[in-house]
Amino acid sequence: MKTNKIIIAVFTVFLAVAMLVNLLPDKEFSDLENRYLSSAVTPSIETIVDGTFMEDFETYIEDQYPLRNFLIKLKNQVEIALLKKEINSTYIGKDGYYFVKNNIDNTEQFIKNLTYINEFIDNVDANVKFLPIFSSYTIYEELLPKYAEVFDELVYLDLVKEYLDIEVIDSLEEIMNHKDEHIYFKSDHHWTNLGAYYAYLKVCEAYDIEPITLEERTKITSDELFYGTLYSRAPLFGYVGDEFTYYDSMNKFTVHITEKNETYDSLYFEEHMDAKDQYVTFLNGNQAEVIIEGGNPEGDSLLILKDSFTHALAPLLADHFSEIRLVDLRYYHGSMQEYVEMNEIDEVLFSYNLAWMSEDKNLYQLKK
Question: Where are the domains positioned within the chain?
Answer without folding.
Answer: 2-66, 96-367
